[in-house]
């Protein structure tokens, strides 16, 4: 009887220990501090642009499919815009010690060497290249020339790299000088198509201006107009911004979505996909930033993020998994190809892209970390060697182990901006950027013009 009495408490202790252990394994992120979780995700995502880079160019592969299936035989195609995001992710990785400064410099030299000889069109880069040759791969039949938006994304990164190395040793200063030359050779004025006060997205040596895509706001292209104004060699007049991007003030359109106030007009929708809040602001610091069209860019982008979250929580189409710990609609792989998912019933296909909430961490840190922990706890269903896979749908039981550069890059960059502000500090410190912002009338606070200091 005595042995039985001892045995029962022992069994109870073992049961409690096992229960506690099970709970811990079910929530793996619970063992990590916020900083450790952020570092885990940032480092793993950095690997896409380091270990996963195309070897000849050093640039980011457009896509990496862990299943090895590439229907268009494009495994070694590299992307200009996605590479721009990746270059910034590598800078952050150097800063974090994921690689040495010497290793990072060697990679940057390889990248710049490729960019110096790869196809350009009046100084602008195409959307895609073949990584082994540097020749353009058409993004579409008539899209086989310069892509000014993607060029802006890669120039945003290169200007940050310039600032990182401009005060360094002789080898680093030499690289900064080569970057400055590439920057000065982009002919932004050419892309006005005959000196119109608007910028055109595409030009083809074969099809000319047949793509016919003048860029108006608001969308992801703000950075293109700022860099076009900032160029010391081919800078466009301020009227191009005011008449083209802002359309003489028509960009201002106060309205509410999900009960949340938005100030700007979003092209084609009431509230755009979340990459519209991210791509231009990987280097451009939205904190305190304003101009005559938007009184608070940080607040506007935060509200756009909150609209996206609120829509997913309301979940009008009743998709499985949507909620406070699983939200985020943006352009990504989808259950049927590639799609720009937005917070409305027309453009919501039940697909969550981790980049949406995670790259919004600068705007909604508490909510984004909630999603990050939830996704991390989902395990290898959504988390692989290069970070979180591009997209998934619980409703369709769809979990492709595939990545896209243009979605991975903002995760690593915005995590770093949240942790240290590194990429913001570098890009905003460039004197040409400061000059461009002043030209367009941007301010950092209520009465404080952009400073070159």
In short:
This protein has helices spanning 2-26, 34-50, 80-96, 101-117, 148-165, 170-184, 222-230, 238-245, 297-314, 354-358, 365-377, 405-419, 422-428, 431-440; strands spanning 63-65, 77-79, 128-130, 136-137, 146-147, 202-203, 252-257, 260-264, 331-334, 337-340, 383-384, 387-388, 402-404, 443-445, 448-449. With 453 residues, the protein is mainly alpha-helical.
Key traits:
453 residues, mainly alpha, three-stranded antiparallel β-sheet, 14 helices, 15 strands
Kindly describe this structure.
- With 453 residues, the protein is mainly alpha-helical.
- 43% of the residues lie in helices and 10% in strands.
- It has a 3-stranded antiparallel β-sheet with strand order 2-3-4. A two-stranded antiparallel sheet has the order 1-13. A two-stranded antiparallel ribbon has the order 5-6.
- Residues 1-26 have low confidence and may be disordered.
- Rg (CA only): 23 Å
Number of helices: 14
Please report which band the strand proportion falls in: under 5%, 5-15%, 15-25%, 25-35%, 35-45% or over 45%: 5-15%
Gap from first CA to last CA: 83 Å
Shape: globular
> Largest sheet, order of strands side by side?
2-3-4
Sequence-ordered SSE layout with sheet pairings:
Elements: H1 2-26, H2 34-50, E1 63-65, E2 77-79, H3 80-96, H4 101-117, E3 128-130, E4 136-137, E5 146-147, H5 148-165, H6 170-184, E6 202-203, H7 222-230, H8 238-245, E7 252-257, E8 260-264, H9 297-314, E9 331-334, E10 337-340, H10 354-358, H11 365-377, E11 383-384, E12 387-388, E13 402-404, H12 405-419, H13 422-428, H14 431-440, E14 443-445, E15 448-449
Antiparallel strand pairs: 1-13, 2-3, 3-4, 5-6, 7-8, 9-10, 11-12, 14-15
Helix pairs in contact: 2-3, 2-12, 3-4, 3-5, 3-12, 4-6, 5-6, 5-7, 5-13, 7-8, 7-14
């Amino acid at each position: 009887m005595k042995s039985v009495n001892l045995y029962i408490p022992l069994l109870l202790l073992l049961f409690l220990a096992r229960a506690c252990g099970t709970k811990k394994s079910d929530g793996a992120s619970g063992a990590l501090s916020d900083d450790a979780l952020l570092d885990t995700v940032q480092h793993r995502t950095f690997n896409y642009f380091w270990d996963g880079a195309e070897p000849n160019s050093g640039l980011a592969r457009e896509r990496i499919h862990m299943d090895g299936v590439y229907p268009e035989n494009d495994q070694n195609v590299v992307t200009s815009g996605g590479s721009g995001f990746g270059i910034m992710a590598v800078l952050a990785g150097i800063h974090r010690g994921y690689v040495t400064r010497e290793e990072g410099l060697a990679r940057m030299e390889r990248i710049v060497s490729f960019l110096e000889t790869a196809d350009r069109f009046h100084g602008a880069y195409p959307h895609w290249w073949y990584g082994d040759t540097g020749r353009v791969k058409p993004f579409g039949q008539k899209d086989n020339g310069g892509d000014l938006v993607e060029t802006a994304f890669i120039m945003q990164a290169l200007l940050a790299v310039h600032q990182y190395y401009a005060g360094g040793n002789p080898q680093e200063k030499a690289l900064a000088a080569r970057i400055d030359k590439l920057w000065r050779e982009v002919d932004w004025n050419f892309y006005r198509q005959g000196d119109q006060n608007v910028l055109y997205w595409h030009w083809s040596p074969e099809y000319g201006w047949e793509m016919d895509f003048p860029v108006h706001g608001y969308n992801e292209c703000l950075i293109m107009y700022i860099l076009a104004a900032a160029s010391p060699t081919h800078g466009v007049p301020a009227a191009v911004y005011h008449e083209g991007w802002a359309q003489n003030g028509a960009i201002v359109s106060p309205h509410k979505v999900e009960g949340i106030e938005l100030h700007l007009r979003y092209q084609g929708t009431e509230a755009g996909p979340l990459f519209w809040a991210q791509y231009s602001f990987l280097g451009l610091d939205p904190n305190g930033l304003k101009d005559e069209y938007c009184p608070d860019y940080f607040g506007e982008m935060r509200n756009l993020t909150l609209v996206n979250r609120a829509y997913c929580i309301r979940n009008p189409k009743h998709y499985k998994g949507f909620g406070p710990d699983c939200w985020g609609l943006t352009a990504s792989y989808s259950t049927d190809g590639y799609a720009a998912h937005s917070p409305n019933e027309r453009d919501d296909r039940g697909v969550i892209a981790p980049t949406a909430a995670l790259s919004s961490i600068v705007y909604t840190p508490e909510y984004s970390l909630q999603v990050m922990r939830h996704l991390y706890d989902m395990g290898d269903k959504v988390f692989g060697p290069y970070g979180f896979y591009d997209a998934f749908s619980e409703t369709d039981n769809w979990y492709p182990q595939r990545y896209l550069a243009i979605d991975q890059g903002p995760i690593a960059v915005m995590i770093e901006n949240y942790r240290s502000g590194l990429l913001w500090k570098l890009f905003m410190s460039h004197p040409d950027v400061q000059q461009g912002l002043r030209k367009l009338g941007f301010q950092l606070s209520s009465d404080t013009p952009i400073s070159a200091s």
